[in-house]
Structures are given as structure tokens and as C-alpha cells.
Amino acid sequence: MGKSAGIAGGLVAIALLAGFAIRAVVGPEGDERPHQITVSGASSVSSAPDQAIVSMGVRVEGEDPESAFQAKSARVNAVMDSLGDAGIGRDDISTTDLSLDRRVRDRGTPRETVTYIAENRMDVTVRELEKVGEMVDRAVTAGANVVGGVEFRLSDQSGARDEALQKAVNAAREKAETLAEAAGASLGGVVRIEETRSDFDSVVRNQLAPAAFDAAGETKVVPEEVETSVNVLVIWELD
Predict the structure, then answer these.
(1) Virtual CA dihedral for 169, 175, 178, 182, nearest 10 degrees?
(2) Which pTM was predicted?
């Protein structure tokens, strides 16, 4: 145990502080020797989106439930027809919320009034990103008075996820090789590999603030890149 044992202990301490782990087993002679190394790797890939999900809807007030709901339905149909005329299929429009609320003002006073609020929210998938602003404008013109924002995403995440996984494993290998070399060993075969985290459905949301409109009053929506992130855990044998 002298100087060499102190150096070995120092290397193990450094490994633990760096997020690595070296596992040891007892050999046939009873001597303890390192035989595995466990390393994590992470990677993130940026990709240009190819579709946008626009959250929008209609909110209407009425003196009774029937009139509020009928007025809401008429405006929703007008919005859907307008989007359909612009090339948005019915399969690309999905209802996310449907509600009817009762609101009482000045309750218990001579001025008490009852209002019914009907609301219908929907997500509209736009597959031509340059037309996102146009779709928002068409919907508002047709009667939509609720616009929640835009989500940019990838219709197929598999390519970005595969690329991120490859980079994460490479990053783990580089760490493992550095640590093994410092300990006077070399990497052997892979014992186990595990994906510990994957955010491969990452979405960037843009709220439509006043700055989203240009001088002509048309909505301007600029796509943002989608991040696909993964983490892996890899265990190698040490030679």
C-alpha cells in the first residue's frame, strides 16, 4: 500500500467526483481489482420543425345557454370552413376543450345579471410553416377570438433521436477512455447500455404577442428549432 495505493485511491475519488464509477470484484487470490466502469453520456440535437400546432378557439357570451352555445357553434363552423378553404383538412383540426359556464354579476342586488359563456378550443396542425400566420389571420377573420400560441415540432422524431443517441454513446465512450487510461487500464466489451432519459418530443411554444404582427396587420410567425435530448448509461469491462 504506499505510494501506488494512494495514487489508485486518488483516481477513484476523482472518478466519483466526475460522475463516473469503477466497480471492483474479488479475484481468485482474494485481491481486489477493478473490472467495470460505468459512465453516463448526454447529447442534444437541434432540428428544423416541419409542422406547427396552432391553439385557437371561440368564446361567446349569451343571456341563456342555448343562444350562447348556438352562437359559439356557428362561429366554430365558420372558422373550420375558412381553414378548410385554405387547405387545412378536418383531420388536422382537433377539439381540445368544450365548455359552458354560468357567470353571475352583482349577485343578490337589483342589478344582478346572469351570463352564459360557451367556449370551444381546438388545435390546428399546419404542415406548411410559411402559412402559419395566414391560417391565424383567416381564423380570426372568420370568428376565432382566442389564440393561445404556436407549437413547432417534428412529425417524425426518429431521425433526430437516433442521431442524439449516437452522440450520447460517443460522449460516454470518450469519458470512459479518459478515465480508464488514467487508471492504467483499457476498455473491453460493453456490459450494458441503457437510455436513462429522452426528451424526443420536445416542443417550442411561441405565444403570439403584439410583436407577432407586422405593419400591414398580418401575423408573422417565425419557426424555432426543436431540441431532441437524450441521456445514456453505459457499462464497459475493463481490461
Answers:
(1) -130
(2) 0.70
d(CA 85, CA 228): 34
Mean pLDDT by 10 residues, the chain (239 residues): 42 40 45 75 93 95 95 97 96 96 91 95 95 94 92 91 96 95 92 87 52 58 88 95
Q: Which residues contact 56 (CB under 8 A, 6 or more apart)?
A: 79, 121, 122, 124, 136, 139, 144, 146, 147, 148
| DSSP at 226 | E
Cβ 116 vs Cβ 60: under 8 Å: no
Residue 125 and residue 53: Cα distance in Å, rounded?
5
- Residue 162 — φ and ψ, nearest 5°? -60, -40
> How far is it, in rounded angstroms, from Cα 230 to Cα 208?
30
